Model the fold of this input.
Amino acid sequence: MLAWHMVVYAQERFPRPEFETDYTYPEYQLPVARNAAWEYIDTGVLVLVLLVTTWLALKKRSRQGLVWISLFSLAYFGFFREGCICSVGSVQNVALALFNDGYSIPLTALLFFIIPLVFALFAGRVFCAGACPLGAIQELTGIWPKKLPRAVEATLATIPFIYLALAVLFSATQSQFIICRYDPFVGIFRLNAPYTMIIFGALLLLAGVFINRPYCRFLCPYGVLLNITSRFASRHLSITPAECINCRLCENACPYNAILPSDLEVKNEEPAVIRRKFITYLVLIPVFAFAGAVALYIISPGLSGANYDVKLAREIRLEMDEGIPAGSNAAIAFKGSGRTDEQLFTTENEIITRYRKAGPWAGLFLGLSIGIGLFSLAIRTERTEYRPHKGKCYSCGRCFKYCPVKPKIEST
Ligand code: SF4
Ligand code: SF4
Done:
């Protein structure tokens, strides 16, 4: 991934070529806005897909049905709508709107942000199961799922929190929409992205053959919000259609380590050990939160380089101080724009100040998330059955077939 990022970065360092042929740049270099009616159609399709997915996951309990509905979403939201609008990217529109009075968020972006979270509150992550095109394309390639060791899984699972914190920070400071910029599958959906993007997406799909849904599990920032909200879901898919008999046949059925075993199978720890763990992890929450806030405050000037004005100011300063020519497109455009160096440096300082203010909040969120995640390990639950972890379960239905229990026949 790092190597891929370097290629993208290197491409940006060079100005566009001056062609000596009769080549002309295309009239539109950004997608032309689509008819507004499509925005309402998209929202309607999203709600419909979520309703059908909820029914398939909770009532009908059909893995096959869930695969078909996700294929539809892949075709519609992925290839037909070319991955935009998408709930994952809408996080950035919401962050931009929350912290900038001058930006009014499009209604569809707001609805695409809220609707899957509302469904998660009532039925768990049905969005991941049937409506997300990014999840659907990965679900298709998960052919030989291998489980990761829990420690590796837990470590990698912190990345989406970092990604979310950075995405919100960069959007709130009007720097970049990194979720869209580094969307690994949009290149495949549009069939015309830079080859680096297509390679990145293809690599993730290849990895997904063995490690199911790598983007959903170890990158997706919207998944963090779905994970949190679905923990409060009033209803959720169950592995068994009736009463769990603790046969353990489903124990290894989930490629995402999302099945919680019954307490009958878990060796109880000594009460004193449990108490000690509980207190230690509880105390660690504010420690992590504080450390996160301080860390992000310290590195926030460095992170501000994600803002184009800051990046440009640094390039111009390098030219002034060390004589390294500022030759990027942005620098050439700046020199011809009539803006003075002082104005640029003032803007740079303002942006760094915004980063200094916003950075600690992002760090606080990160520290709290890690602290609360650790603390949750110390909480004892009473489970007499095997059931999905509400936050981690993608409602994919793979585990249904492992359960030998038959549904109860309702008497008339
Ligand atoms: S439905 Fe949930 S618990 Fe079952 S296999 Fe899918 S993600 Fe795992
Ligand atoms: S959920 Fe079904 S398969 Fe899993 S332990 Fe219970 S009865 Fe067995």
